[in-house]
Amino acid sequence: MSSLYSHGNYYLSFNLSHIRMSPMSPDELKALRLERKWTLRDVATVLGVTTATLSRWERRLAEPSANALEKWESLLAGRTDAKPTGRKPTRRPRGLLPRLAELFLADIKAGLNDQEAGWRELAELNLACEDILSLGQDAEMDLFGCARINPGSNLRVMQQARDIRAYRRAVEIEEHRLTSAARTILSPLWKASGTGDGRGAIVLAGLAEMLQASASLLENARRLLDNDPSSLLDSPSGAAQQILSVVDLAIPADPARILGEFGLDSMVSLVRIGPKSACSQALALELGLGTTAERLGQAAILALGTAWAMTQCLDSAGVSLMTEVGIRRLAESFWEGLGLPRTNVDAKWRQVMLEESEPETEKQQLGMLLWSWPEVM
């Protein structure tokens, strides 16, 4: 048997068989408020919160702290004096959300993750618990009395923080891929590039990959060519051999076997001499590829060919790098493995591409397009 006793303006709900110990639900507290004909403002004023906050509590859109819930229940259950405390309802502190967002962003920039960023003690923020509660789901508190902005906030600053974290995660993934590739793919590539025949086989394959990837440019300019540009697509190693001979890089007798010995099987198909090899060499002559190769010199050709061989190996292994950090570290490993002074090669490349290589004919101008790949280095 349960009863509801009235004493002045206060109500107390209890069961004669046992005292109710579990907290009242928001629905029950709202029912008591309506039964007493109290408005949201009446209750919010006594609790020291805004009517908007109390409304969110009643509709289960936000959860009060344990302390606020105890005060709320004690008031409506008649266990505390219902006289207004004289404290004005807590309003959302002006500029608090942007301030919390800037703190979160600063922590992210400092290297903290989403779980650790943004937390501050209320005393440090010069705020009371009610100030944070007034923000509803835009802020959150932990068990130690620290508060921060909700990481899912739509503020522009928070989107910037999420972009930074997403970029860092992408970098972490790329670093893992690059570390694995360096052990299984790049290590044998650098080892092979240190031997005479190995170096020639790698550069031959790399230049063939570069020429093959560029063949579509010739297809689009077919009218400028007397012979079939598809010869470069079908047998790029013919033109690559001519380039190597111009800069005195030895061409091994059996490059496919040498690549296989170093575990670089993905490049074997690029070094096989096809039936259109002679046509490919003739096309290279027309386009002025040998002249440009001579101007670039052996070091630049070695670097370019090895860079293309490296990208071909990485592509075949499904290793793609998109972030600036990943690409920079790949470049660092490339020049370290190749053992060439990068500044000298870069300077020579700029000199040839920007100063010395004005093509004399339309065909040579077209041939210059085939060398427009310095970014792969």
Describe the structure.
With 377 residues, the chain is mainly alpha-helical. The chain folds into three domains: 2-76, 434 Repressor (Amino-terminal Domain), CATH 1.10.260; 96-153, no CATH class; 173-376, no CATH class. 59% of the residues lie in helices and 6% in strands. The protein has helices at residues 26-35, 40-47, 51-58, 66-76, 96-109, 122-125, 129-133, 156-193, 196-220, 230-234, 236-246, 255-261, 277-286, 289-296, 298-316, 324-338, 342-356, 362-369, and strands spanning 2-7, 10-15, 120-121, 139-141, 146-149. The chain has a three-stranded antiparallel β-sheet. It has a two-stranded antiparallel ribbon with strand order 1-2. A hairpin with a 2-residue loop joins strand 1 and strand 2. Helix 5 runs parallel beside helix 8 and helix 11 (236-246) packs across helix 13. It is rod-shaped. The chain starts with a strand and ends in an 8-residue tail after the last helix. The relative contact order is 0.08.
Number of helices: 18
Beta-strand percentage range? 5-15%
Structural class: mainly alpha
Number of domains: 3
Amino-to-carboxy terminus distance: 86 Å
Tell me the series of helices and strands, N- to C-terminal.
Answer: EEHHHHHEHHEEHHHHHHHHHHH
Low-pLDDT windows of residues: 1-20
Q: Helices and strands in order, then pairings?
A:
Blueprint: E1 2-7, E2 10-15, H1 26-35, H2 40-47, H3 51-58, H4 66-76, H5 96-109, E3 120-121, H6 122-125, H7 129-133, E4 139-141, E5 146-149, H8 156-193, H9 196-220, H10 230-234, H11 236-246, H12 255-261, H13 277-286, H14 289-296, H15 298-316, H16 324-338, H17 342-356, H18 362-369
Antiparallel strand pairs: 1-2, 3-5, 4-5
